[in-house]
Amino acid sequence: xxxxxxxxxxxxxLEVSHNFAMATAPFGETKQWNRxxxxxxxxxxxxxxxxxxxxxSVIETTAKAFLTPLIKGExxxxxxxIAQHLARWIALKVMVIDGASVAGERATPTFxxxxxxxxxxxxxxxxxxxTWIGAAGGPKWRASFTRHSGTMFLSPTxxxxxxxxxxxxxxNIQSVTLGIGNLLLHVVSTSxxxxxxxxxxxxxxxxxxxxxxxxxTILWPPNSALTDWSIDADVASALGQLFRELPRRAHxx
Length: 253
Description:
By secondary structure, the protein is α+β, with helices and mostly antiparallel strands. It has one domain (2-36, 49-245). 30% of the residues lie in helices and 24% in strands. The protein contains seven helices and nine strands, in the order ββααβααββββαββαα. It has helices at 49-53, 55-72, 80-98, 113-122, 193-198, 228-236, 238-245; strands at 13-22, 26-35, 76-78, 129-135, 143-150, 173-180, 183-190, 208-211, 218-220. Strands 2-1-5-6-7-4-8 form a seven-stranded mixed β-sheet, sandwiched between helices. Strands 3-9 form a two-stranded antiparallel ribbon. A hairpin with a 2-residue loop joins β6 and β7. α2 packs across α3. The chain is globular. The termini are far apart.
């Protein structure tokens, strides 16, 4: 997919990762790292060579024909059938990012191994996935990504500090925002079925949902594109804002 990206996308930029330890409420720290080079040239040592060259390559090749006009900003239509191919490709990318160790930090996966194996076997879009697409209008988000991850559970009543579930390495919710050329992808995924059904996510500004599947055909490109500032403030940080808006308690990890 590298040839589809804009010239000049190889400049260094700040990548941001928010890692929260959460129970009924979040507490954590924001970790930042500077990345030299473009995000689209990053490689993650997650998948084996056999997977890369077989079933993962099939997903990439199938999606490429549909991704090309979106990335270039060309006029096209995204039918429900095309949206399914895109969602499958996005699920693959999110799964790779989910299991990656970046900038020396340990991986904080939200997907269990059984979920990864099921995706490899069936190619069905991951359960717990919500995906939106929009148009990126600024230079930063032509080749950038941000991930937020945390642990969350629902309670009908507020809990006292000693009633909170101890935090650990397993996380159950994440968001990934990925900019590729003119295309902006925003994904929220959770491995908790209760969270998936209970939390009603608003559509990010000017973005349209493609998963869960709808019966709508999308005209591309949309009438308006998001600025870098708007993506940073209203899209990429949405899950982190949700964490911060909840009551929270101090936690020593």
